[in-house]
Fold this sequence. Notes:
The chain is α/β, with parallel strands linked by helices. The protein has helices spanning 17-26, 35-42, 49-57, 61-76, 117-127, 146-159, 170-179, 184-194, 209-215, 222-234, 251-268, 294-307, 318-329, 346-349, 360-369, and strands at residues 79-82, 85-87, 133-136, 164-167, 196-198, 239-245, 271-278, 313-317, 336-338, 373-377, 384-386.
Amino acid sequence: MLASVRPTPLAGENDQWLDALEENLASVDWSPALAPLAVKLAKNVPLSLEDGMTLYQHPDLHEVGAMAHQVRMARFGNRAFFNSNVHINQTNICVLACRFCAFRRGPKAKDAYAMSIDEYMDDLAIYAHAIDEVHSVGGLHPEWGVEHYEELFTRVAKTYPSISIKALTAVEIKHLGQRSSMTTREVLKRLKAAGLTSLPGGGAEILDDDVRAIICNGKESSSEYLQIHREAHEVGLPSNCTMLFGTIEALEQRLQHMISLRDLNASTKGFQCFVPYPFLPDDTRLPQAQLATGTEILRTIAVSRLMINTIPHIKAYRMNIGDHLAELALQFGADDIDGTVQKESIMHLAGSSAPLDHDRAKLARLIHDAGCEPIQRNTTYSEFEPYIPPKVKPRRVLPMATQ
Ligand code: SF4
């Protein structure tokens, strides 16, 4: 007998999404391999690791994508969420040297940088009129403690009260605790009081300590990542969570990663969005990486939607997967797309060529091209507004369905 779970609708979901889920899944004649999964999903029963392997090994990618799309449509209809943000990476100086990272520099490198608070504010001033969120992550600076970020966030919050500050990964929080001799919970409380709105969730990589020992030795352990996010949720800071795939991990480790995040959120409910993104090809940083193909990226996004029933949003992170794949991902289970962005270093140094000049109208067009309705949201997924782009000259396209 399957136990069903009826969570409170959250974060822009349809009120009756669980009823819609049952209807949507019953409306399709699933193949024998996927039919038992559809029965579980219809009752919002979490899929097992073995179910996840079935999804990864099912020969029909389209059927896996269609199943993820049915779940996404039940939760959100064809709405696709975005916000207007800028990424400011405050320093590339880092005391660690993760194997996959193309961004970090040692303090003596010619192109090492650490923005002063004034420089950060000057940079933010360029974009402030057009954004509602600043997203800041960076290296583990050997000299900056919690006071540096308190001063920075206080300045940002006072100067731009309508801009949310989404900043610092779990390992940055851990590093600040070590630098300032305080617990990570204290760091989170102090930074929240200074104006921090939420954590972006980067740095999860793969939550498996054997994998981490090879790709990011010295970073926080899997349990520390989960614990810091648990503490963030407990002190009232929502967060996102990520997965870097296509390095050296096995499929089981990806699935266990999804399950660990899903299980944590079943109790804390503080994760808003799951962001799966692939390692970008580079022969020098991690030559043994098993790079993800385009179809594998789409499949992983679909599997994420199906495995993770406790986190409402699945993001197509276009900074990493590019605009074309991000558009397709909106038909494979993703409902959220990041973002106008405008400035970003980490993925671009790793090889991304995703355009950085998207204003809201361009992003809305990408969402329309995927057959979805663009909805502008705030950082914490608590305010939503349909975005009607300004009228533009119609594009020359052949008449065909978009879905
Ligand atoms: S991933 Fe983060 S912690 Fe690791 S080297 Fe790069 S900047 Fe430092």
